[in-house]
Amino acid sequence: MSLEKSIRSIGPRLNLETGLIDMTHGSGGKNSYQLVKEIFSDVFGSAHLMDKNNYLKAPVGDLVMTTDSFVVSPLFFPGGDIGSLSMHGTINDLAMCGAQPLYLTISFIIEEGFPLKDLLRISKSLKKTQEDTGIKIQSGDTKVVERGKGDGVFITTTGVGILPPSRQPLSLQAIKPKDVILVNGPLGDHGIAILAHRAHLDFETQIQSDSAALHTLTEQMLTKCSGLRYLQDPTRGGLSGCLNEISYATGLSIELDSKKIPLRTDVRAACELLGIDPLVLANEGKLVAICSADCAEDLLREMKTHSLGQNAAIIGTVVESVESQTPRVTLRTPYGGQKILNWLSGDQLPRIC
Amino acid sequence: MSLEKSIRSIGPRLNLETGLIDMTHGSGGKNSYQLVKEIFSDVFGSAHLMDKNNYLKAPVGDLVMTTDSFVVSPLFFPGGDIGSLSMHGTINDLAMCGAQPLYLTISFIIEEGFPLKDLLRISKSLKKTQEDTGIKIQSGDTKVVERGKGDGVFITTTGVGILPPSRQPLSLQAIKPKDVILVNGPLGDHGIAILAHRAHLDFETQIQSDSAALHTLTEQMLTKCSGLRYLQDPTRGGLSGCLNEISYATGLSIELDSKKIPLRTDVRAACELLGIDPLVLANEGKLVAICSADCAEDLLREMKTHSLGQNAAIIGTVVESVESQTPRVTLRTPYGGQKILNWLSGDQLPRIC
Q1: Cα nearest neighbour of A35 on chain B
Q2: Res. B9: pLDDT tops 70
Q3: A243 and A341 Cβ atoms separated by less than 8 Å
Q4: Mean pLDDT across chain A, nearest whole number?
């Protein structure tokens, strides 16, 4: 039976212009079925929910598995939406483990009253992200909660990737003093894009989220640089949170040079205006790489050949902690001073991803 | 550094008696770190969040991957809680594909103000379920949303399993007329347990959810019965929803014998009192098996040897649909009549799982 015919035979079609999610769409009954058929069939691909279409070719190498929930607000923002973000985020989590992403699953928790046309917009964004990244969503789930018990849509994506047999797992334990720290481009774009959109701020140019899938960049880096020790994406908590956690976990300190940290001029201006440190702002298409000193320049050159690494930079080094001090992250300021980059305990910008 | 020392060095310990979740626990900063350390370290097992501890031994055979969000209300109910339920649910989804479950991930969306002691209770339940089922949670995520934008805790679990190389994938296409339909025990327990708890109904005996992991039962069934065509767990939508969807997708009809469908006496009584059809109630430890007629008795005997199949029963058969009719599920009543089991379009009992 064709999909078109299946849908027609099950009841009147959904009104994708003005229709709203109601509790029956989460019942597991006919209406749930219809919702998935009409909104998500392009993403899930299966003609029938109960089709066992989740048998996947087993890869050669160790598996890597990561999961992430997305509660970003607003759902649509300059440079992306919760759909593309949720795929990029999980693809990047796998990539940061040195893995080649293979398969994704997606699960929706939808609030009663959510417009079907917005759900369709998210579904189309997922489809486009599948095409752009080459990573397919294999299976999914939808649940509905009452009005006031959710907030539009929450998405959880989970990914499975493969660590090629010749590749060593990345590990915090590999990080050593004198290692060099790189980023693949300017920081804080996602945080400012969301914040500006929430606050209805008009900057001269619209700042776009940097949301992007980094798996082809990391693959290139891992293939070309044997001295790469560790990768991490500075999402929630920003560069500062990411490096503080690494410092805390390894017992090593980190010294950054503020002049070398790439920032877009408009992001820097927005941060000054708003009194926000760009280094605590979330990024969704950036990575921190830590590599041995002897291969840092090669790695930088390699990164710059990739479209997502054109503005890559060496920003600092790993150092032994001073005996009497707790490990810390310091920033050399443009005026030659040094300040400690603290690990944020509060939340400057909730629901950024 | 020992976990104990890590936690102390990061700040004052959480108050697990009276403390509440706040937005900083979702910041990705120090407080997120502390939350995971103190509440979930037993479940996640890693000393540091950024430790790449999600490298998994690659199995031999095709992979199966499923995901499911749990928004059950209440979070704690007779016979289980959202923690055990979320693990059982995803283990069962894998088992219904004929797969051996290997790895799980878990993601929490927590509402601001949620009591830490309840989160700890869920964490302990997850730990116990890991021990009981032998399936480990490999990685996880936590997000926090503002008060009134969630409802306590939502959990999404995703699982990866393996289809042993000698085993054929299960498929709707394998189902044929004259095939026999079995269930592994009495239906509707989960639905009534949740409903009674929500409505503060006192029955003579407390009805417990049937929430359970079915992977050892399915493994036994798949190993012993080569005529097994298809497995499905009748969760949301109950037996009626499950069989209607199978009928709709295959174009075949299904005839059930109401006398043979196992129901607990107290569940039957509760359903009569409440005017609810037990066949639309959700189950969380039940499966529907469809097998060739010649091996049905053997399969039934095999199921009865397993603790989760002691009350298994043959309940009906698959038949050709009458040419002029749409495929349908019918129930032979105790008085010899026949009624059509409709596919629920509404939702009798929202947020049952």
Answers
A1: B345
A2: no
A3: yes
A4: 90
Q: Which residues, 6+ apart, have CB-to-CB distance to B192 below 8 Å?
A: B207, B267, B270, B271, B278, B281
Among chain A residues, CA nearest to B30 = A345
ipTM: 0.92
In a domain, B348, yes or no: no
Check: CB of residue A190 under 8 Å from CB of residue A283. Answer: yes
Instruction: Summarize the confidence of residues A54-63 as an average pLDDT.
Output: 79
Whether B149 and A150 lie within 8 Å, measured CB to CB: yes
CA distances (Å), A146 to each of A22, A235, A295, B153, B347, in order? 8, 30, 54, 14, 12
Contact status of A103 with chain B (Cβ, < 8 Å): yes
Cβ separation of B351 and A145 shorter than 8 Å?
A: yes
Residue A259 in any domain: the answer is yes
Q: Do B63 and A49 touch (CB under 8 A)?
A: no
pLDDT at A9 over 60: no
Which residue among B24, B160, B351 places its CB closest to the CB of A346?
Answer: B24
How is residue B328 written in tokens? 């349908």
Residue A6 confidence (pLDDT) above 50: no
- Here the CATH number for the domain that contains residue A184 is 3.90.650.10
Q: What pLDDT digit, counting tens, does each position of A132-173 carry? A: 999 999 889 999 999 999 999 999 999 999 999 889 889 999
Both B318 and B228 in a single domain? yes
Same-domain check for residues A219 and A333:
yes
A116 and A203 share one domain: no
User: Is B12 in CB contact (< 8 Å) with chain A?
Assistant: no
Contact B62 A55 (CB under 8 A): yes
Which of B:195-234 have CB within 8 Å of A? 232
